[in-house]
Amino acid sequence: QKEVEQNSGPLSVPEGAIASLNCTYSDRGSQSFFWYRQYSGKSPELIMSIYSNGDKEDGRFTAQLNKASQYVSLLIRDSQPSDSATYLCAVKVDRGSTLGRLYFGRGTQLTVWP
Amino acid sequence: EADIYQTPRYLVIGTGKKITLECSQTMGHDKMYWYQQDPGMELHLIHYSYGVNSTEKGDLSSESTVSRIRTEHFPLTLESARPSHTSQYLCASSEQGGAYDEQYFGPGTRLTVT
Questions:
Q1: How far apart are the first and last CA of chain A?
Q2: Which residues is A113 bridged to in the sheet?
Q3: Quick one: which of B38, B42, B47 has its CA closest to B92?
Q4: What is the pLDDT of residues B81-114, one digit of tens each?
Q5: Which candidate in A65, A97, A102 is best for mutational testing of the B interface (most B CBs within 10 A)?
């Protein structure tokens, strides 16, 4: 079982719509969760981090965490063509010798069409 | 946000050559990481370091070595490049003791071994 699972998509939404990206993780003891955006040919860019159950909002982005269900999501409101990218979910796992490392999902490719 | 630099950005080299990929960061982060990423695939951790003179292997046996003689510098060396090493190599860093361990990535090195 992979540590982090994402629906690889692709996800396609019209401009102005809400894009919903989902991620599940396997280690129930995980405490820190991150969303990265990666444009084609570029390196990942951190856009959101969340540590407590519930919602965290930053501009058009909202991260949602449900530790009981081991589920984290990212909502992008008023989607823009510039949001078209691959979104990576990452989970921090503290376990034995791997203290503090991140496990990444394969990413969900999002396309926002005008 | 960390300032993290990688050189070279692109490298085409022949089989059997020795390669060193450079990574430097100016934020004083104690933790540094090397990831390998093929197109459309997840990031794989190949080496990490929690401080000077501390290095550990990650998940991927890439036949590479790293060193951490200075906090800001974390070079990756391939003793004998092979076509299977063709990939994107990403360096990242995070703050030791940071509650959230947010990792910031450099721009990457795209390596092609012919």
A1: 38
A2: A14
A3: B47
A4: 999 999 999 999 998 766 677 899 999 999 999 9
A5: A102
**Each residue's pLDDT tens digit, A75-105:** 999 999 999 999 999 999 876 655 668 899 9
Which pLDDT does position A99 carry in this prediction? 62
Residue B34 and residue B89 in contact, taking contact as beta carbons nearer than 8 Å:
yes
User: The tokens of B3 are what?
Assistant: 């300032």
Whether A105 has its CB under 8 Å from any CB of chain B: the answer is: yes
- How many degrees, rounded to 5, is the angle at CA A39 between CA B29 and CA B88? 65
**Closest Cβ opposite residue A49 in set B48, B100, B105:** B100
Q: Choose from B25, B91, B100, B112 for mutation: most chain A CBs within 10 A.
A: B100
Q: Nearest Cα to B19, choosing from B76, B63, B70?
A: B76
Length of chain B: 114
Q: Please name the amino acid found at residue B109.
A: T
